[in-house]
Amino acid sequence: MKKYISKPKQMMSRSFLLILAFFTLNLSAQTITDEQKNELLPKVKLLLKDYERYSQFSADGVSLNVEYKKQFVALFELTLKYGVFNDISPSKKGIFPTAEKYLNFVETNYKQGLDVTIDIDNIKIVDVVFLGDSYSISVLVHKKAIGIFNDQGIIRFDDDLYFLFVSGVDEKGKPSSFRISGILTKEKYAQVNAKQKGIILGLGVNANYSKTKINSSTVSSSDLWKPSAGRAFSPGLDIVVMLNKRIGIGTGLRLSSYNSSFNIRNYNQTSDRMVTDIDGDKYNPVLQIPSLSQQSFVKSIDIPLILKFVAGKGKAKYYFDIGLIGSIISKSYFTLSGSSVKAGYYETLNVTLSDIPEYGFGSYSYNKEKKYVFLKKQATSLSGYTSIGILYQLSSNLLFKLGAGLSYGFTDLNVDSDNADNFINITSSSLNEKTSLRSAGIELGVFYLIPFKR
Q1: Residues near 37 by Cβ (< 8 Å), separated by ≥ 6?
Q2: Whole-angstrom Cα distance, residue 398 to residue 393?
Q3: Which of 285, 295, 321, 330 is the S-S candidate for 271 at Cβ 3.0 to 4.6 Å?
């Protein structure tokens, strides 16, 4: 058992250390001081006031102004990597690659210009990156715009946008010469932010509702017992680090439950299995079982180590997970329901003893209230795990997960094969070779995404 479990534990420990190192380095890189914000705010506000004025394209509300058009274009970088969101089309979709294209759309469709308002007093600087010879600044801005589209109807816009700015550096190393490098929606900014920063931390809660199976090799090779899968609900916490938009690693903590029922009917014979009584003598159980159900339960604390893959575009994406789950068994027991008559045949004495309660011989009825020892000791388990499903973007930082997962136990749980109360033991001719955990079901969860810089 140890050689199977120790290595995954070492891998998990190393992964936690790597994740911690990533977080420590990236948090220090992302820090924006109040002093930096105070220095930037006046200059950002000044540029936004110019944008508010010149993005109306008209000084009188009657016709377009040539100087306003010229000054509007001058506010932008010549090359816009992420473009300008089309907030003035009826569909509110699309991106203009340049400021000139935005201007051309206005010239074609808004002959009287626009009425634009920027909530300058409540702008929020969300990110500042120093690139050595320039600054990259992201600002959350609320914009309102209204205009008459092709003399046919009024088009309105009223929402938050992310304005991206770049600036040079003056002789004192302070930002100067601000230009707009892009205007994005919240959803698009989240995508751009992920691409730029590379690493995203996801913190989530999840729940699995699964059919579970405590798989016994003894039952699988026997015609006496009829197994039935159980059902269980398992809550958990997830930690995911996406190294890029396609690949990530995950771990976390889950409280898992497994249960299975094993049923036997019309059993009336002497078992080949040798059992030791309280005096140390060997006997063969002589059993009459009209109907009996034995239900086994295992509860565990799971620590997964998962490789994650994501594909697709837009708000809905597909995911595929594969990896290992290390489980610490926290509780295990079985219950009985039904009835039996039990005696013992002592071959060395050639005698059958019955109706001796201290030896466990007699007639018994069971009602599931008593819990019996299932495993010899609190064991550990290693399982393989895979899942597939859909990730849906609820907002720029919030994802919903829905999929299906499958786990398959590799290691033996070390069932107490000497327990005479375990009817699977005493009706079998040989020792149980392996008992493992399996599950299959649906999983759902919610993730909150936190971007980090490299």
Answers
A1: 125, 128
A2: 6
A3: 285
